[in-house]
Amino acid sequence: MQAGLQCFGVGLLLLSLAPSSRSFSRGASHASCREMIPGHIRARPQDLQRSHVTLRTSASSYLPGQLVTVTVRSSRDFMGFLLQARRVEGPGREVRPRSLGPVLVGGSWTLTPPGTHTLRCLSEGDTLTHSDKHLKRNLSFVWRAPDAPMGDIRFYLTVVQSYFVYWAGIESAVVRDGSRSPWSWRYITRADGGNSAFAQQEDEVTALPGMQVG
User: Fold this and answer.
1) Reading across the β-sheet that carries 139-144, which strands appear in turn?
2) Radius of gyration of the CA atoms of the chain, in A
3) What does the pLDDT read at residue 26?
4) Which of 66, 97, 110, 211 has a Cα-to-Cα distance from 165 of 20 to 30 A?
């Protein structure tokens, strides 16, 4: 009788874990769109300083509609991931688990290797995740920028090593909005009192002798 009850209890436990396991093997769900964290029971985020994953891009700037290759490199096997492009809202702003600030900018992932698929969070194909739990290390993807300028962006990555271990908020270097001109018009007052306009790079304005920068 006792053995029968034990078997019954084990069966209930397996049934309760089955939906979560199937969900994990199919990739992240829409519930992960905002904070980019998995919904695994008792899972805990790891220290980003000890992450074994790097996230690199093929370009340091982008234009509307441009294709950018995004590469994930890891020194250890991992099972799952979630990848998005988000706007950079200020200098030094970081991604933290459960407090993700930057806004998802959209775009679409046009090249997805086997074992991955896109997810619609705000627009079609703007998020990328795994579709199986096979071990992964090095992956490359192609992201198409939105048709309108979205400002400076970063790519953000969550990597799941096991059901209980993950890193959230791994980030790429900033990819600048190439549609923004680095030049600005400034006016100077000449020695004779007249005004002249000239273009100068931002943050590099130098007054010439006898002139005042206005």
Assistant:
1) 53-57, 67-74, 139-144, 108-111
2) 24
3) 59
4) 110
Report the distance separating Cα 65 and Cα 114, nearest Å: 24
Contact 185, 199 (CB under 8 A): yes
pLDDT band at 176 (very low <50, low <70, confident <90, very high): very high
Domains of the chain: 24-177 (2.60.40.4060), 183-213 (no CATH)
- Concatenated DSSP letters of 46-96: PPGGG--EEEEES-SEE-TT-EEEEEEEESS-B-EEEEEEEE--STT----
Structure tokens at 189: 């007052």
pLDDT, one tens digit per residue, over 113-153 is 888 989 889 888 899 998 888 898 899 999 999 999 999 99
Cα 104 to Cα 111, 123, 165, 196, distances in angstroms: 19, 10, 25, 42
Query: What are the angstrom distances between the C-alpha of 26 and each of 39, 77, 82, 84, 164?
Result: 13, 17, 12, 17, 17
More confident residue, 212 or 154: 154
- The runs of H, that is alpha helices, within the chain are 2-26
Strand, helix or coil for residue 126: coil
Question: From residue 156, how far is each of 13, 53, 146 by CA, in Å?
Answer: 34, 12, 17
Residue 173 has pLDDT above 50, yes or no: yes
> Would you say the pTM of this structure is higher than 0.85?
no
